Amino acid sequence: PRSTLFPYTTLFRSACAAKLNLPLVSYEGGSDSYAAAGNGCTTLQHDSGMHDLYKAYYDAQTAAGMTGPFNQYTHVGACWGLKEKTSDSLEVSPKYQGVLDWLAAHP
Question: If residue 72 lies in a helix (H) or strand (E), which one and from where to where?
Fold first, then answer.
């Protein structure tokens, strides 16, 4: 699954940064489902698997030694947001819930 690639790509980037004595940071991080056909963005936005995918993503960033900031691209949006709409509840926002759960476990 794609989620298994996160640790490897993040570790590769971390090694490159370390060679240059630079901190590992993230600019405009998060998932991208823009290429999904039809209602793919909306379908993926509400897929319960996104909860665990986001937690795994943040775990991989931490395991790779990210010491700089992580900038989630956007809070709201069908393809890139943590929620599709601002008014969406946690029950229909698995990416947002995954981030909240991860943050609660890593104070």
Answer: strand 70-72
